[in-house]
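User: Second chain of the day. Same drill as before.
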Amino acid sequence: MFTTIEDLLSKLWHKIFEYLDGYDIYKAFDGLNSTINKIIDTISQLHFDFTNISSPNYRLIQYKFMSLKLINQNTELQLFTRLKQLSQLRSLTLTGVRCICIIEKLPQLNQLQSVFIRYSGTTSCFNIAPVLRTIFKHLPFIKHLTLLPNDYQWFCLAPKFIVPTLTNNYLNTLVIHIWTCHDLFQFVHVIPNIKRLKVIFGCSISGALTKVFRIPKLKTLYFETEKNSLQYDFIVYLFKCFYKLEQFSFITRSREIVNDQKWNNYYRPNFLIF
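Assistant: Same format as last time:
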């Protein structure tokens, strides 16, 4: 009795597919026969990485997206203009985005839970307000958000930025490059369930803000800046805002000032009076 690869058990096919990218699975196996088609359709999660594919055939996978990773070589423009069925997408990574119109199409992907965007514009300081407004208003299930510029750019907020009403209570992890602490607190206080926050500042951190924003659920805070100092008054201000903080790290380009262990063993007990 002859046995062919098509006679493999479904479990073995699933094991094989675990080692393959979603696009490769569809390109190599879709349409081979009805049995394998059914096995592919039962895969609960498929991940697609187009970073090394110059001209992908989107028709192969237009209904099976769960996770996408794209770079800016007009790939994402092709995707968002030609692909209409993205309702299953849960995770999106955009690296080297230069066109804000890509961000404006995010409301079509309202099931997203994780978004990573590395913007690569031409200006030294990019106003991040439209991006935040779009994400806060139109992505109700997002849990993890990372917004980064290129190495020679920083994000800032327009002086009259109006904080949008957050449409979800799920966002708990935020990683962002921002110019000043004032820019950060313009919007972070409207995220009710933020638990983990990592901020890389474009300028030195100095001076406490006058208004205290109470953010009760934040447990982990990571600050990074080029300067080697963090004023005592500012630490006090942070503890008033993040009064249930458990882990705190302050890192500069040249050395580590405060890490989680130091915070838990020494600094945090000394601030419990606030």
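The chain has two domains: 1-44, 50-270.

User: Great, on to the next one.
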